[in-house]
Amino acid sequence: MQGEDNATELELTASLQFLPGVGGDRAQKLAKLGLRNVRDLLFFFPRDYEFPAPSVPVDRLREGVEAALVGVITDAEIVSRTPGKSVFGAIVETSTGSVRILFFNQPFRAETLTFDRKVMISGAPKLTGLRWEFVHPKVTILDGDEAVPKPQILPIYALTDGIKQADLRKLTDLATASAAHAIREVMPESLRRQSAIRLRHAGINVVGDLPDIATALRAIHRPDSKEAIVAARTRFIFQELLVMQLALAIRRRRLTSALQAPVISRTGLWDARIKNRFPFELTGDQQRVIDEVCVDMSRQFPMNRMLQGDVGSGKTVVAVYAMMLAVANGYQAVLMAPTEVLARQHFRTLQKMLDGSRVRVGLLCGSLTAAERRDVLAGTAAGEIDLLVGTQALLFSIEFAKLGLCVIDEQHKFGVRQRVQLRGGGIDPHYLVMSATPIPRSVAMTMFGDVELSTLNEKPPGRCEVNTYLAHDGWKERWWQFVKERLAEGRQAYVVAPRVSPDERNTERNTDQDAEADSEDGKEDVSSVLTVFENLRSTVFADHRVALLHGRLSNEEKQSVMDAFAAGEIDVLVSTTVIEVGIDVPNATVMAILGAERFGLAQLHQLRGRVSRGTHAGHVALFTDGAQAASDNERLQVLEKTDDGFEIAEADFRMRGPGDMLGQRQSGLPPLRIASLVEDQEILAVARAVAQEMIDDDPEMDDPSLADLKQQMMKRYEARLSMGDTA
Ligand code: ADP
Ligand code: MG
């Protein structure tokens, strides 16, 4: 958006150095704020505003609360002239009573604040004796009968050394007055009107159309009301998000339209046959998501869909349905799990469900013998295996005869959603990625801008509640007692600790963590599974079968521990977060999490999901390692309040900020200037929808009225639009 064609008093590209009162030295300082020319100034938005104090009658003044008064000076004197300790005082008589104003070490005040002068003062008063007193109030001298001026809202800008608020205000004043009109409008009037309507529909407070660029620029620097600020900010936030979403929509379209995918269609007969294989009715949510998936797969370009659903929401069913439909259409499907334990679990589920059918299921994982492995690979390449399940690492670049669908389970890692290099016989498979770590919608819409999103909110019926307890001091005895009682009833228990051994520096990380807190570690007082295991089995649970599970065990060892636990041969499983992902042992109903403050909320929520799998109510107690009890930890309290994974992710996001959760950096997108992924989620959703429609109508934005908008988008997102990279 270049606007140099307009005759202006100030060129937009004019260097700040030549503006009145700037010069070379200041210009350098301004450059530190990213301010080089007049255009930069216009788009240097205030970070906040200073609102004028409300005018308040004297009998309504409150100590320390900002107020403004208009009155006449009836008495003024220098109370003390001692240099360095001078005091000037005056009485201001208003229509509702009089107040005193005081200035220390400003004897010059006596020259302007003279008898009979009309003034407006504002500040926070203090009651001394019988009179309200304002120390160093802001004073505006009013001319005789002149109407009291409307007090101004003042912008507050980010500053740097040597640049004062007043300097920036002067400069932005000058820039808005003499150059705002020269900025070219990138959002045509119809787009501003339509968008305003859409925003209103989404419940966002927009009065009339979104303001045009010149109006918005003036209002954001020199607003005359709160409403004007909101309108201007909404416009800029929307514009910024729209430009981003346009880029993502174009990218989405270019990516998919270049690829050729198998058309996988659904018939009533197939639908009925597949559903017959499930031992239960689908929930409404599962049905809806299956429909979304089927529409995608019936197109000739690859589906790229992420299915989010809380722990236990029944994502597997959706995947199984889609895979069976692919097989029914004569294609192969592959299901990738992050761990061998989970891959085997899926394999068993599929085998059970497909028992007696002609569908052939294969398993590819690390613990196969060389011969078994060869067989599976050959069967897959020959098309004899219809459904292949395996661990992700092993499924890269293997050969399929006719791959139609690739499902990736438990994909939590942000930003590393690599497209797997699968050779599928000249076609690109459809992708379905499943995640139980709910990503706030706004993050998903940004990070995974080129991915369609489906969400399972509803849980399958018959789910038991998980009771979550935030432990405080002296709780452990009682808790172990409680666990023993559950064990006596035939249930099983988990004990989770953040790290493997006491001497280990870092919290255990496996591929599935949204790992957090290991920063100030390296101290012995962090719970470790080795210590806890030794301790519990020699004391409290000496009479029970206690086992140990962590990421340093071999796959076979892990598998045999998990199998034994699933078979009920172990009472208490002491584990790191390797149990976090997908494990399904319905008889395990109690869990203690030690060092809970070291985990992310989403991860804790995942963990507790392990004890809500069956018909018995689940119980989870959170203990901390630090001095602060879990019950006093504000972050952990969220878990007690809600069982909704999305709400939890949202809360985590708000408390920790988007920073460490996704990092704009990781997304590969340029930073946002005014919009916030935390604060502006509703506007983002509207921007995404509007962008999608615009690109559906006009895939390359060829409409001349959108030329400037397109140019702005290209400038900002060119790198992201180049199709070379993945993700
Ligand atoms: P997740 O979304 O965590 O992967 P799963 O797919 O493992 O969840 O499902 C959790 C459990 O719920 C499984 O035991 C599954 O059999 C069961 N389940 C899934 N859908 C339904 C349904 N519609 N009705 C009853 N049980 C269901
Ligand atoms: Mg699952």
Structure description:
The protein is globular. Helix 4 (165-179) runs antiparallel to helix 6 (213-221), helix 7 (226-257) packs across helix 22 (681-697) and helix 8 (268-276) packs across helix 10. Strand 3 (87-94) and strand 4 form a beta hairpin. The chain contains 23 helices and 22 strands. The chain has 727 residues and is α/β, with parallel strands linked by helices. It has a seven-stranded mixed beta sheet with strand order 6-7-4-3-2-5-8. A seven-stranded parallel beta sheet has the order 12-13-11-14-15-10-16, sandwiched between helices. Strands 17-22-21-18-20-19 form a six-stranded parallel beta sheet, sandwiched between helices. The chain starts with 22 loop residues before the first helix and ends in a 6-residue tail after the last helix. Helix content is 37%, strand content 17%. It has four domains: 1-51 and 153-184, no CATH class; 63-146, OB fold (Dihydrolipoamide Acetyltransferase, E2P) (Beta Barrel), CATH 2.40.50; 268-456, Rossmann fold (3-Layer(aba) Sandwich); 466-642, Rossmann fold (3-Layer(aba) Sandwich). Mean pLDDT is 85; it is low at 1-8, 414-418, 506-524, 659-666 and 723-727. The longest helix has 32 residues, at 226-257. It binds adenosine-5'-diphosphate and magnesium ion. Magnesium ion binds at residues 315-316, 409, 582. Residues 501-512 have a biased composition (Basic and acidic residues). GO terms for molecular function: ATP binding; DNA binding; DNA helicase activity; hydrolase activity. Residues 498-524 are annotated as: Disordered. Residues 513-523 have a biased composition (Acidic residues). Residues 489-654 form the Helicase C-terminal domain.
